[in-house]
Write a structure and sequence with these properties.
506 residues; mainly beta; five-stranded antiparallel beta sheet; 3 helices; 5% helix; globular
Length: 506
C-alpha cells in the first residue's frame, strides 16, 4: 500500500520466500545510505575490561550456549535421571528467553526489559542483572576462564560481561552507525543482533541487520571474544560477490536466504538459516533452485545436499508461532510456495522442534501423510537417521509414537529424551469435520488456553532408543518455546509464566 511517500507491507499467511520476506507490518522508504563510523569507535572497553581471559575449557557438563552447542543440537552427553522433582523455582517475571547453564549459573534474558540475569545454579537465587540498550531475544554464550557472558541485543551491540559479577568488560557496536527505528513498540537499531552469538575456535560470529535489502544489508562480524576486537566484517547486500542481483536467483517461490538468525556451525561452515559461509566469513556461492516448471514433478531429494546438512528453520530459530506451513529441518534447504513447503519434510528429518546427536534426529512433527496441502494436521514423536530417507522407505523412522501433548521444549540428555508442553486434546482429523459443533468449539477453546500456557502441562521422559515412556509429571506452566536445558545432571526450564524452574533427581 503506497502512502505518505512510503510502501506499507502488511503481514500475510503465505509460505512463499520464507527466508526472505519481512514479518509484521512494515513501512519502507527509498534507499538511504548510512554513514559508517571509524572502526575504532565501535569498541568500548571499561576498567573491568582489563580482565585476562583465556580460552580454556571449564564448561564440561554445562549448557554454555543456545541449544547447548554450536550445532544447536539440543542434546548433551550429560545424564539426567528419569525420575525428577522440582529443586527450585525463581520468579524472574516478564517474557523470558531460553536458557544457558554454565559456570555454576543459569543465564536468562527478560526480553522486553532488556535485562540479562544470572541465577545461582544450585538454588536459583539471583546473583546479578544487567540492563542493555534493547531487547535481548535469546540466551548468552559463555566463554573462557574466567568466564565471559557474551550476547547481542536489538540496540545493535554485542556485549561481554564478567560472568562472576555482571560487570561489562567490552561492548562493540555491530552496525556501521547508531541509527534507530521503531519495531514492535520499542526503539531498535537498524542493525539488531540476536542475543545468542556463535563462538568457534576462539572466534565470535554474529549477524547484524534486518535483511540483505534494507539499510545497506547484513553484516557478518568476526570478533575476538576475549577482547571484542573486530577481526573481519563481511557485507551481505542485494548483490552477490560478482555484482549480480540476489533477486536474479529467485525461482518460483524461493531465493537465497536474506534474513539473519542465530548462527550455527558444523565445524566446517557457519550457517545463517540455510545459507553456508566459510569460517573466514566468506559466503559460499549463491544458487538458484530451479523446479523445471513444475514443483510437483521436481526431484525433491535434489533440494537437500548432505555436505551442508544442518539444523535450521526457514523462519528462524526463535519463531514460536507454531505455523503449519513452516517447520525445522535437518538438511540443507527449505523450498517455499503452496506446493513447495511440504517437500523438505518428505526427505529430511523435519518437525516443529528437533534435537539430534551423532547419529539420530529426534523430533515432534506432522505425520507423513499431512506433508501436503491440507487443513487438519496431526503430529507424532519420532527418531530418524540424520541422512534423511527416501519416499520409497516403508519405515522412514527408527520409531514413531503418538503422544497426547505438544512439546514446546525438548532436550536429549544421555539416553533419555525429555519433553514438556501442554496436553493435546483435539483430534484435528476428526474435529475439522465437526468444527462448527459447540462441543468441538469448546475443545478448541481449551486447546488454545493450553497452548497459551494457562492450563499447565506435562514433563515426560522417554527412551531415546525406542521412544518408550519412562516417566511423566504434571507441571503448572509450560516452557517458553525451546526453553529447556540440561546441565550438571539436572533439567532447567524457562516458563511462559516468567519463572525459571530447576528439576533434579528424587
Amino acid at each position: 500500500m503506497p502512502a505518505n511517500g512510503l510502501l506499507y507491507a502488511p503481514q500475510n499467511p503465505c509460505a512463499c520466500f520464507l527466508e526472505n520476506r519481512m514479518v509484521g507490518f512494515c513501512a519502507l522508504a527509498s534507499t538511504r545510505a548510512a554513514v559508517p563510523a571509524p572502526k575504532t569507535e565501535r569498541l568500548e572497553r571499561v576498567p573491568s575490561g582489563d580482565l585476562k581471559v583465556s580460552a580454556g575449557d571449564t564448561l564440561n557438563g554445562s549448557w554454555p550456549t543456545y541449544r547447548g552447542n554450536n550445532g544447536r543440537s539440543g542434546s548433551t552427553a550429560t545424564k539426567v535421571p528419569a525420575q525428577l522433582k522440582p529443586a527450585w523455582s525463581t520468579n524472574v517475571g516478564g517474557r523470558l528467553s531460553a536458557l544457558t547453564v554454565a559456570d555454576g549459573k543459569v543465564f536468562v534474558a527478560a526480553i522486553d526489559r532488556h535485562e540479562m540475569l544470572a541465577l545461582n545454579e544450585a538454588d536459583g537465587k539471583p546473583i546479578w542483572r544487567y540492563t542493555a540498550g534493547g531487547r535481548i531475544d535469546s540466551p548468552p554464550t559463555i566463554f573462557g576462564k574466567p568466564a565471559l557472558c557474551i550476547f547481542g541485543s536489538r540496540d545493535g551491540t554485542i556485549t561481554a560481561l564478567n560472568a562472576a559479577d555482571g560487570k561489562m568488560v567490552w561492548r562493540c557496536r555491530a552496525g556501521p552507525a547508531d541509527q534507530r527505528v521503531m519495531a514492535y513498540e520499542q526503539l531498535e537499531s537498524l542493525w539488531p543482533v540476536n542475543g545468542s552469538v556463535l563462538i568457534h575456535n576462539k572466534v565470535l560470529y554474529a549477524a547484524a541487520g534486518r535483511s540483505l535489502f534494507l539499510d545497506g544489508g547484513i553484516r557478518l562480524l568476526r570478533l575476538d571474544p576475549a577482547s571484542g576486537k573486530l577481526l573481519s566484517e563481511t557485507l551481505l547486500n542485494d548483490k552477490d560477490e560478482k555484482g549480480a542481483e540476489v533477486q536474479s536467483y529467485a525461482r518460483q517461490h524461493n531465493m537465497p536466504a536474506s534474513l539473519p538468525d542465530i548462527l550455527s556451525c558444523d565445524g566446517k561452515h557457519v550457517f545463517m538459516r540455510s545459507q553456508p559461509f566459510k569460517l573466514d566469513g566468506t559466503r559460499l556461492p549463491l544458487k538458484a533452485l530451479n523446479y523445471g516448471g513444475n514443483p510437483q514433478k521436481y526431484s525433491i531429494r535434489a533440494t537437500q545436499d548432505p555436505a551442508f546438512a544442518h539444523l535450521f528453520s526457514p523462519t528462524g530459530f526463535l519463531d514460536d508461532t507454531w505455523w503449519h506451513r513452516t517447520y525445522w529441518v535437518y538438511g540443507s534447504r527449505f523450498t517455499g510456495g503452496w506446493a513447495g513447503y511440504p517437500l523438505a519434510g518428505k526427505v529430511a528429518p523435519s518437525g516443529r522442534i528437533l534435537v539430534f546427536d551423532d547419529d539420530w534426529v529426534f523430533g515432534f512433527g506432522r505425520l507423513a501423510k499431512y506433508y501436503r496441502w491440507t487443513k487438519p494436521i496431526e503430529y507424532h514423536l519420532f527418531s530418524a537417521k540424520k541422512t534423511g530417507f527416501s519416499l520409497k522407505d516403508k519405515k522412514p523412522h527408527r520409531w514413531a509414537k503418538d503422544i497426547a501433548m505438544f512439546p514446546r521444549g525438548m532436550v536429549k540428555a544421555g539416553p533419555l529424551l525429555f519433553l514438556a508442553g501442554p496436553q493435546d486434546i483435539v483430534d484435528e482429523a476428526v474435529g475439522f469435520r465437526k468444527r462448527n459443533d459447540p462441543e468441538w468449539q469448546e475443545k478448541i477453546r481449551r486447546q488454545a488456553e493450553g497452548m497459551a500456557g494457562r492450563k499447565g502441562g506435562f514433563l515426560r521422559a522417554v527412551k531415546a532408543a525406542t521412544g518408550d515412556q519412562v516417566s511423566q509429571i504434571k507441571i503448572d506452566s509450560i516452557p517458553v518455546f525451546d526453553g529447556m536445558a540440561a546441565a550438571y545432571g539436572r533439567l532447567f526450564i524457562s516458563r511462559v509464566d516468567g519463572k525459571v524452574m530447576c528439576l533434579g533427581g528424587k
